[in-house]
Amino acid sequence: MSIKYAILGYLSWKPSTGYQLKKNFEESSIMYWSGNNNQIYKALIQLQSEGCVSNEVIHQANSPSKKIYTITQKGLDSLKNWVMLNPEAPEFKKSFLVQLAWSHQLTNGEILSLIEAYENEVKMQLIMHNEKNKRDPVFPKRSSREELIWDMISENFTSSYEKELIWVEKIKKKLNCSNNKE
Known about the structure:
Layout: H1 3-13, H2 18-27, H3 37-49, E1 53-58, E2 66-71, H4 73-83, H5 95-101, H6 108-135, H7 144-181
Antiparallel strand pairs: 1-2
């Protein structure tokens, strides 16, 4: 996903500063993006040069001036065109599976420790996702349909974590069974 479209999406909801956009990305488990802050500002500059966003400089007495970015009609059209593209297949690239695939040199205890560490990480991600959504979900609620869609996206994340935990339990059980046979 291009950061440009995530930015356009947020700006279609409400005008924001680059800093507010950064905070939205950090606080959302749904709008995960692993880039750095400079990429947000570079994308905003590019979107502005393409006519997809405009900005207004707000001067503040005791703070630095800030730029409030607003999506333009061209930006809305660009966002709609992107949303209408055929969806990509989900990516199931998990570095843990690569680690596990090459764990032959580890003892059974080391493999189980590795799996338990992964299990703890998944549990932590699930807890953080659920807490973020309880405290202050960072998503628009302009209509009941939009709220439903965002709730279902959140549920997708939750069910993915839960399914991963079921898989972890399954592999731990099977490894423990194979340990007893050896």
